[in-house]
Specification:
Mean pLDDT of chain B: 91
Order of helices and strands of chain A: EEEEEEEEEEE
Number of strands of chain A: 11
Low-confidence stretches of chain A: none
Low-confidence stretches of chain B: none
Order of helices and strands of chain B: EEEEEEEEEEE
Number of helices of chain B: 0
Shape of chain A: globular
Strand content of chain A: over 45%
Shape of chain B: globular
Oligomer: heterodimer
């Protein structure tokens, strides 16, 4: 079945360093969404990408959708302690009618 | 306030007992979902519903049951047939897009179920 993998599983960074998480799907995606889950909290929607090669920015966060629509990345510039949490990608394949969530990347930021 | 509510936040049950988790939304969303999250893991889809009186199995439906009698409500029953029920359960809803397109999912605060 369809799988969505994320790497790395964990990332520890010093405050001010950059961070990137990568998302890879076994099938072509019609769109991809990114969510953030703070420790002890619930996932919160960040953004949706639809077009091949699309790049979107939200302040220090940059999201990219691959040309083949099978991979995506989230890059955070100059991390802050408020960025701590687990970041999930979630894909919608043309062959299914539900979102498949990635395995998540847990980010820890040390002050 | 509009949103999704799940109750209770923490739930303890004895092994062999069925337990029903509540999920209510006042966002007027058509689609609702139940996910299971285990420590350090991603979200796995249990059941989802796109319309009242209809629902589909997700990837890990065995040992669970749902109903969708009202648009606002999508309760999940964890039955005694579920071998490892202890987990964090998340309910979500989304407006259903045209031609199967997806919109963002709004999550409730979750219910942490512990089976003793």
């Amino acid at each position: 079945g369809q799988q969505v993998m994320q790497i790395p599983q964990y990332q520890h960074v010093q405050e001010g360093e950059d961070f990137t998480t990568y998302c890879n799907s076994s099938t072509t995606l019609s769109n991809i969404q990114w969510y953030k889950q703070r420790p002890g909290g619930h996932p919160v929607f960040l953004i949706q990408l639809v077009k091949s090669g699309e790049v979107k920015k939200q302040k220090r966060l940059t999201f990219q959708f691959g040309e083949a629509k099978k991979n995506s990345s989230l890059h955070i510039t100059a991390t802050q302690t408020t960025d701590v949490g687990t970041y999930f990608c979630a894909g919608d394949s043309y062959n299914t009618d539900k979102l498949i969530f990635g395995t998540g990347t847990r980010l820890q930021v040390f002050p | 306030d509009g949103g999704i509510t799940q109750s209770p936040k923490y739930l303890f049950r004895k092994e062999g007992q069925n337990v029903t988790l509540s999920c209510e939304q006042n966002l007027n969303h058509d689609a609702m979902y139940w996910y299971r999250q285990d420590p350090g893991q991603g979200l796995r889809l249990i059941y989802y519903s796109q319309i009242v009186n209809d629902f589909q199995k997700g990837d890990i439906a065995e040992g669970y049951s749902v109903s969708r009698e009202k648009k606002e409500s999508f309760p999940l029953t964890v039955t005694s047939a579920q071998k490892n029920p202890t987990a964090f359960y998340l309910c979500a809803s989304s407006p259903w897009g045209l031609a199967g397109s997806y919109n963002e999912q709004f999550f409730g605060p979750g219910t942490r179920l512990t089976v003793l």
